[in-house]
Amino acid sequence: MNTVWVMVAFLEALAALALPPLLMSVIAKTKAWFGGRVGPPWLQPYYELAKLLRKNAVYSETTTWVFRAGPIISLAALLTAAALVPVLSNRSPLGFPGDVILVAYLFALGRMFTVLAAMDTGSSFEGMGASREVTFGAMSEPALFLAFVVLAVATGSLQLSQMLGPTLLDEWQIAGPAMVLVIGALLVVLLTEACRVPVDDPATHLELTMIHEVMVLDHSGPEFAYITYGAALKFMLLGSVLLHVAIPHPESFVFLDPVLRVVELVALAGVVGVIESAMARLRLNRVPLLLAGATVLSAIAVVIVFARRTL
Amino acid sequence: MTYHPAIDTILVLAMLLNLSMLASSRLATCIRLFAFQSFLLALLPVGGEIAVGELPSLHAYLIAAAAIGLKVILIPYVLMRILRSGEIHKDVEPFIGFTASVMIGALAIVASFAMASRLVLPMPPFSDLVLPAALSTIFIGLLTLVTRVTAITQVIGYLVLENGIFIFGLFLLNRTPLLVELGILLDVFVGVFIMAIVVYHIRREFDHIDTDLLDELKEV
Q1: Phi then psi dihedrals of residue B210, to 5 deg
Q2: Which of A307, A305, A309 is nearest to A245 (CA)?
Q3: If you ran DSSP here, which 8-state letter would residue A286 be given?
Q4: Among chain B residues, CA nearest to A301
Q5: B188: closest CA of chain A, how far (Å)
Q6: Model pTM score
Q7: For residue A176, which residues of chain B lie inside 8 Å, CB to CB?
Q8: What sign has the CA pseudo-torsion B18, B22, B23, B27?
Q9: N or C terminus: fewer CB in 10 A for chain A?
Q10: Where are the domains of chain A?
Q11: Nearest to B186 by CA among B84, B57, B75, B89
Q12: Does the predicted interface ipTM exceed a cut of 0.85?
């Protein structure tokens, strides 16, 4: 029995790791559909990763080891986080009480090394992008943590795989509005952390308006592949957290579960594509208001969840 | 404790609309948000009675109809007319920035939850979110009233404040005579009517409705 579960978990992890570029492709296709175009082939992100992995990296003479370590540590941090976040089922490969803090700070670690690598190039554009990334990252963190507080109170656990488990079904009965607020906050966090439209525009060609893209301009070859894949992986992980809150699956779903989750993730990517097609990037000085709004949403959710338990 | 999903949703939405009113930089948006909030709240007298398992009374229907007629249709219409009629700045001009006011609004919501858990009530409300929603709407109405410069935003602040009192009144729905509640709504209408006239005259005299400048009329 035990070996079977290990095999299942292994296959599940493989499937989860293969999925992120496809989600990017879904976003690209949705945007193309809105623009009346056909869009790139479905497997284009995979081709690009394969191409980048075969190339050599070019390093600027002004950079140090920090620049080379950046993408590797970012990807490693995200892969570690991927082991702790339940993606395709209610279980995650690893987990211990309190791992929710570790997951949040693994994301932060990855971001920190991307930022350091960007600063290491000495390019003024990249420094600007780094400063923006850190600012918005710092502002989206309270929203994420307050959302985690809601989940912790709702499920009485500090382990991510349990916080996102089937117990949330009851919480929807007790404090439905709070859960909706958490979803709103998590969506903003997802769009911020994954550098998608209302905060950042991944398709922009002007360095002055970029945030994430401008930081990785100097990376090339396999390291750029790590960064591209890492960004997609981060999107999938935060998207999974969002989906587990929005649509908790009961325990009995065992084998249907992964299939449904893939469909849901693809649908979420479609929604993000629609958001990107329907609205423009916010002016930079309006972004803090959006993130403050997300924080306020989770804060109110926390208050409601507590009020329901103590009043 | 008592709760009902639809009522909860309306009350939480009302609180969020308060915050989005603080965040929006356009007067027209503020007015629309106020109209939407009033519409949601107008559903409460009827919805509240259904939630506690009673058949909605004529009393509740009348209050709802009066609230929709006045605060969803008439008052927003009057305000929009003033807005369209001429040389009014269509932007909100706050003393406190948008992000800061949203934060203060959020604090007000947290504070009203804290206060609501301490108040002793004559009878249990039909949802435990009623009291926090009422208090926070009153606080945020007050905040809008004191931190915004133009006369129109002050009218909106006054109206939001009244919406808070309306939620509060839902507690005592069966205890308050219909005449008193209709009297309150009439007061609000007259209040807005007078303010509209005042706004109109301020604009005619001074070419703008920045009430802050009226302070300078003081004799030294």
Answers
A1: -80, 100
A2: A305
A3: G
A4: B12
A5: 29
A6: 0.84
A7: 5, 8-9
A8: positive
A9: N
A10: 53-310
A11: B75
A12: no
